[in-house]
Design brief:
By secondary structure, the protein is an alpha+beta fold. It is built from ten helices and five strands; from the N terminus they run H-H-E-E-H-H-E-H-E-E-H-H-H-H-H. Helix 8 packs across helix 9 (208-221), helix 8 (189-204) crosses helix 10 and helix 9 crosses helix 10.
Length: 251
Amino acid sequence: MWIERLAREIGALGQAQGSSPERALNQMSVAAARGVPGCSAALVVLWRDVGPGDDVAGRHVVVDYGASHSDLAAAFEHQYTSDQGPAVEAVREMRPVRVGDVLREDRWPGYTSMAVQCGDRSSITYPCEAAGDVVTFGVHSGRADGLDEASVTPLVALLAEHAATALQSAGRVTDAAREAAHMRRAMDVRAVIDQAKGIIMHARGCDSAAAFDELRRVAQRNRMKVADVARSLVAEHDESTGRPPRAAPRR
């Protein structure tokens, strides 16, 4: 059946020879967006528990993620920096999170506007443990009630399990943090975006939300991720003010 074929495809992407975790997660998200009924975009995130946080389950940081579309990447980075949204709740509570229509939601007041701007109206996100880490697999629709919960939820659970097993069996969960530290962010994402927002707020006299919106607009216009735009802005600001370069994250 097509469901089993899609699940096998997801699993194979995670184990492809020479594929980095970033590439594997991106390819998984594209395959899900293409294959899941009603899905217009997908998001696959690898999280690591870094110890006690504000809740019993501890605090999770992003090791890496893949998003099939740039708007969904921007929406997720807003989730991560604001600590609100379906993927954040799924990993925090370790349970599936379903959204019929984000405009009917009151769980994440700080996320609703961003979700609508990015075309994220309904979604199903499923978390799965992977050798001590967690994979969240989310399918999203640009329409309210765009996903059939009864049929899509078990499919997303299956895809999440295949993704987690593939990463684990290939040794990727153990190695992902080291690879991600050499390639892009991990725990510094929140800090660099906050630095960039502060620069914009000071220059324009705007609030934090408006500053983040400006970062997002620049990222979309240039087909970049918000974190990469933020890093460039901080580097340019330091150069223009004559500050010594800020210490890069340890590699």
